[in-house]
Amino acid sequence: MYCKSCGASFYGNVARCPSCGSELTYTGQLGSEIGTVILPNETTGWLARRVQANGFVWLLIALYQIIAGIFLISVGYGIPMLACGLWNIVQSIKNFRFARQIRTCDNPDLAQSIVQAIDRSKSSTILFLFINLFLGGVLGVIGCIIWLALRSRVLDRAPELGVYD
């Protein structure tokens, strides 16, 4: 971010420019003043809760897949189902860790990397969506749609995290 008065760059939760001492505000792409963004804030809390809830969704899907996989081992469909269940447990653990990282986000650079990671997840989520459609995994399709909806809301709310690109 840059100081409106002197043009010096700054990072973190600072209220005054380290160069000229004027009060700092964050400006968006169009140059509109939106006020000082202090992290963590309500948006980081909102996002962390949504990512954690998504982790629970994938954990429930994984548990269903593991239970169904155990029952379907005798017909040959159980092994792939168990593998998908284990994969989804790993993904839910990653979501829980990501939620913790978001909850403690305290600078614009970290917020930028969080938004970029969520933005980059689009192609892999769409790939998993089609895999679940092909394999008949209705719960997986629902999980992917929930994540894509969350991704869209995060990108809309990125300025509340101090991210404007």
Largest sheet: 2 strands, antiparallel
Count the domains. 2
Strands, count: 2
Mass-distribution shape: elongated
Question: What strand order characterises the main sheet?
Answer: 1-2
SSE sequence, one letter per element: EEHHHH
Distance between the termini: 11 Å
Q: What's the overall average pLDDT, rounded?
A: 80
Helix share, percent:
55-70%
Low-confidence stretches: 26-35
What is the tally of helical segments?
Answer: 4
Structural class by SSE content: mainly alpha
- The Rg value, from CA coordinates, equals 20 Å
What fraction strand?
Answer: under 5%
Describe this structure in words.
With 165 residues, the chain is mainly α. It contains four helices and two strands, in the order E-E-H-H-H-H. Helices cover 64% and strands 3% of the residues. The protein has a two-stranded antiparallel sheet. It starts with 25 loop residues before the first strand and ends in an 8-residue tail after the last helix.
Write a compact overview of the structure shown.
This protein is mainly α. It has 4 helices and 2 strands. The chain has a two-stranded antiparallel ribbon.
Lay out the secondary structure.
Layout: E1 26-27, E2 33-35, H1 42-72, H2 78-103, H3 108-135, H4 138-157
Antiparallel strand pairs: 1-2
Helix pairs in contact: 1-2, 1-4, 3-4
Q: Keywords, please?
A:
4 helices; 2 domains; 165 residues; elongated; two-stranded antiparallel ribbon; mainly alpha
